[in-house]
Design a protein that fits this description.
By secondary structure, the chain is α/β, with parallel strands linked by helices. It has one domain: Vaccinia Virus protein VP39 (Rossmann fold), CATH 3.40.50.150. About 30% of the residues lie in helices and about 20% in strands.
C-alpha cells in the first residue's frame, strides 16, 4: 500500500497549547512581529503580478490582521474574512479597515473551515500552515472552499528555520525544542495531491540578529511561537541546561550579534476551473465561458 510522504507529524502540534500561547501573546504581538510583517509585505508584493478581481477574500490565520488593510486597499470591492483560532487576535483584527468596512472575523481552525464549498475567490495566508497537523487535509479544505479558478497564496516556514536555536538545544540536552517544519518540496507535493493546479514554490532565508539570546527568546514568547508539539518536555528547564544552550548558541555570534535564521517558503496555486460534484455534474465560473479559442 502506498503511503503519504512524512509530513513531520511524528511529533504533531498540540493545538490547545498553541491556541493558549497565541491568546496570551495577542496584546503585544504587533510590537514583536517584525518578521511576520516583512513576510506579509513580500507576499502582498507578489500580487502585483497576478490578475485578480476577488469578491470574497479569506485571510487564513489572520492574527491581528496585519494584511487586512492592504488587501482591502488592493481589492476595494472585495469582502475580507479574517480567520484565526485565537479569539483575542481577532479582537484586534476587527479594528482593521475603515469604520464602514471592517473585516468579518471567524474564530476557527484552518484544518476544518466553517465555510461553504466554493465560497472564496482568494485565500491569503501568512505564516500559518506550520501550525496545521495534516497538510493534505488542510489543502483539501482550502480547495473545497475556493471557487473554481480561485487562488491560494501563502507563506510558511521551512526546516532551516531557527536552525541555530535547534542545534544549541540539541547540544545542551539532546532535544531540539523547536517545532518541526516541512520541506518546500513536500508542501508543493501536498498541493498537487489536493488537486491544485499550477503550484509554484520558492524559498529564501531571512535573518534577524540580536545582541543576546534573551532578545530572541523574548520575541518568540511575545509572538506565541513556543514549542507546542505534543512530545515536548513538560518539565521546567533547569538553569544548567539553559546555560549550556546559551553557551552552545554563542558559536554562531558574528560581528557582535547572534543570528536567528528563518527559511521562508512562498507558494501559490489555483483551484481547477472545473469543479466535479458527487453526481458527476461539472461547475464552471462564468468568467471561464468562451475562453477556449475555436479550432
Amino acid at each position: 500500500m502506498a503511503t503519504k510522504p512524512d509530513q513531520g507529524l511524528n511529533n504533531p502540534i498540540d493545538k490547545p497549547a498553541a491556541r493558549r500561547a497565541f491568546e496570551r501573546a495577542a496584546a503585544g504581538y504587533d510590537s514583536v512581529a517584525v518578521l511576520q510583517k516583512e513576510m506579509a509585505t513580500r507576499l502582498l508584493e507578489r500580487l502585483n503580478y497576478v490578475r485578480l478581481a476577488p469578491r470574497t477574500i479569506l485571510d487564513l490565520g489572520a492574527g491581528t490582521g496585519l494584511a487586512v488593510d492592504e488587501l482591502q486597499r488592493r481589492y476595494r470591492q472585495a469582502r475580507v474574512l479574517a480567520l484565526d483560532f485565537a479569539f483575542p487576535m481577532l479582537r484586534l483584527a476587527r479594528r482593521r479597515g475603515s469604520l464602514l468596512r471592517r473585516p468579518t472575523c471567524l474564530c476557527a481552525d484552518a484544518e476544518a473551515l466553517p465555510l461553504a464549498e466554493g465560497s472564496i475567490d482568494f485565500i491569503f495566508s501568512n505564516a500559518t500552515l506550520q501550525w496545521c497537523n495534516d497538510l493534505d487535509r488542510t489543502f483539501v479544505e482550502l480547495r473545497r472552499v475556493l471557487a473554481p479558478g480561485g487562488l491560494l497564496m501563502f507563506t510558511t516556514f521551512g526546516p532551516d528555520t531557527l536552525r541555530e536555536l535547534r542545534a544549541a538545544w540539541a547540544q545542551a540536552d539532546g532535544h531540539g525544542h523547536v517545532s518541526p517544519f516541512l520541506d518546500m518540496h513536500d508542501v508543493g507535493d501536498a498541493l498537487v495531491r489536493a488537486g491544485f493546479e499550477g503550484p509554484v514554490m520558492d524559498a529564501e532565508q531571512l535573518i534577524l540578529t540580536y545582541q543576546d539570546l534573551g532578545g530572541l527568546i523574548n520575541d518568540l514568547r511575545g509572538l506565541g511561537a513556543r514549542n507546542a508539539t505534543r512530545e515536548r518536555s513538560r518539565g521546567l528547564t533547569g538553569k544548567a541546561r539553559w546555560a549550556a544552550m546559551r553557551a552552545a548558541y554563542e558559536v554562531h555570534r558574528q560581528e557582535g550579534r547572534l543570528p536567528a535564521t528563518y527559511e521562508v517558503v512562498y507558494g501559490h496555486a489555483w483551484a481547477p476551473l472545473q469543479r466535479v460534484a458527487a453526481d458527476g455534474s461539472v461547475t464552471l465560473p462564468l468568467s471561464a465561458i468562451g475562453r477556449r479559442s475555436p479550432a
